[in-house]
UniProtKB/TrEMBL annotation:
InterPro entries: HAD-like_sf (IPR036412), HAD-SF_hydro_IA (IPR006439), HAD_sf (IPR023214). Coiled coil: none annotated. It comes from the Eukaryota. It holds the Pfam family Hydrolase. This is Uncharacterized protein.
Amino acid sequence: MVLMGGVGVPSFSFCCLFQTRPTRPLCLKFRLKPSSSHSITTMALTNNTNERKLPVLLFDIMDTLVRDPFYQDVPAFFGMPLKELIDIKHPTAWIEFEKGLIDEIELARKFFKDGRDFDLEGLKTCMRSGYSYIEGIEQLLLSLKKNNYEMHAFTNYPIWYQLIEDKLKLSKYLSWTFCSCTFGKRKPDTEFYKEVVRHLNVDPTNCIFVDDRQTNVDAAIEVGIRGLHFKNVKLLSENLSLMGIDISTDEE
């Protein structure tokens, strides 16, 4: 717009200040005006086409998009109830693994308080088998993708998120942008949320975050991100629609 204004104004001044015959400036103005109008319209269309679609959608992964095998499959793998597993596992080893502070070899060494050995590859196979989409969520993600929404994972998970990707190909719908193992931070640390906003280069109000844990949603709201507590796909779809998100499909 500034460029085209720069072309139009000098041509008008030339006609006014240096005209010697009345027919010449009129002719010049006739030729330049259609050209300027066409260029301005083209520029506006280009800007509209390249405009970023907001809001950006941020999704927790485990028990929001993908079933978490920890609560049923993993205790069964170790042959014990969940409560017993929680009592005897190391209190911080998994958190350290999620933050990328230790690798899986170190995780295996300190997973249990008493340092007992276990089949690490067997555990990974167990977890991989347990990963599946939450019922109905893949259809919602597909609708959002077709409507050109920008979507990112915002999850507390170790490098084993690659096991989820290998099985479910979640990257068809969103980017694995914000994983705790990459940033060294975990939800609900507000610094993690602020880093997400800085990375996206958007105002927090232009983000919607979905998580099955209310504490994580509350932390998002604290930094200005709009938060939704995930309970089921039907309710999530309704809440997204109320927030102005288009979840319609061509089939509807």
